[in-house]
Design a protein that fits this description.
The chain is an alpha/beta fold. It is built from eight helices and ten strands. The strands form three sheets. Strands 2-1-3-4-6-5 form a six-stranded mixed sheet. Helix 1 links the parallel strand 1 and strand 2. The longest helix is centred in the C-terminal third of the chain and has 17 residues. It is globular. The two termini are 13 Å apart.
Length: 299
């Protein structure tokens, strides 16, 4: 089938479709560093740019629309301004695109915080907007840890079909046993140790900067965020078997998000962490497009 990708980032939500051989007729992304990484892997894919400036009627036809519409306005980590925040208003441009192109299938992703925003009113408004665009809508809350990732990452997925209603089948976890040990960067010890001064070690202990360390092994990792500051990468600290503390590496972040090794190489550390923390988990994309939806859509 043919698909169009919105708010593409570095292609996490695309991954399940691209690997299955479906054809991308175009994508929409505005962040320069993310476009650079995406085009390195998909040089033939055309970027139509800012969704607010696209002539929807001029787009090629497609069967599937995908997109992780901006979540900052709804995220628990954001200001939660919802539809008052311009980023939260992108859903209305999605609505206009659906009315113009009428694709048969739609998969949209957002943060779990959307459910609680404005006591659930924002979630209901998004649901109704998709219905008014002419779609039957079902919603899944999926945690990447249940589908092959060593990362605990909950996200909402709006599954929409135009021509016919469809059942909501309970997702079946494919792998809930993977741990950080399985994706560990074995070269990390050479260049990512934290300072071992007594002051810094005390700070690490006091602030709990090793939330996924277990005695004798590694557990799952908390949700990756987009920043390299104290509220992002700097919270991602683990302890090596010899007792040293260190940050996660960008390679580990790629593996935790299900990307092939080196997917974001060439970008700065800041842009790599933004791209990876912002991405849809590829393991979940593979599960949806190569497994789950074959039960409710493709057959």
């Amino acid at each position: 089938m043919r698909y169009f990708s919105l708010f593409t980032g570095v292609g996490g939500l695309d991954m399940g479709l691209a690997e299955a051989g479906h054809e991308c007729v175009g994508f929409s992304e505005i962040k320069v560093s993310s476009i650079e990484a995406y085009k390195r892997h998909y040089p033939a894919h055309q970027n139509f740019g800012d969704i607010t400036k696209i002539d929807f009627d001029a787009l090629p036809d497609f069967d599937i629309l995908t997109g992780g519409f901006p979540c900052q306005a709804f995220s628990l980590a954001g200001l939660r301004q919802g539809f008052k925040d311009r980023r939260g208003q992108m859903i209305f441009f999605v609505y206009d695109l659906l009315k113009a192109k009428r694709p048969e299938f739609v998969v949209l992703e957002n943060v779990k915080g959307l459910l609680m925003h404005e006591d659930g009113r924002t979630y209901r408004n998004v649901f109704r907007l998709l219905m008014h665009a002419g779609y039957h809508v079902r919603v899944l809350l999926l945690n990447a840890f249940n589908f092959g990732s060593a990362q605990s990452r909950e996200r909402l997925f709006f599954l929409c079909r135009r021509s016919a209603d469809f059942p909501l089948i309970r997702p079946k976890a494919t792998d809930s046993t993977r741990t950080f040990r399985d994706v560990r960067d074995h070269d990390a010890a050479h260049f990512h140790f934290l300072s071992e001064t007594e002051k810094n070690r005390a700070k690490i202990e006091q602030e709990g900067l090793h939330p996924f360390r277990l005695i004798g092994g590694y557990d799952r990792v908390p949700t990756l965020l987009t920043s390299v500051s104290s509220c992002g990468r700097e919270q991602m600290v683990t302890q090596e078997p010899d007792g040293h503390f260190r940050y996660l590496t960008e390679l580990e972040a790629e593996r935790l998000q299900g990307f092939p090794d080196g997917w974001t190489e060439g970008l700065s550390r800041v842009n790599r962490w933004f791209a990876l923390g912002n991405a849809v988990n590829c393991d979940v994309s593979r599960y949806l497009f190569q497994g789950y939806l074959s039960k409710v859509w493709w057959n």
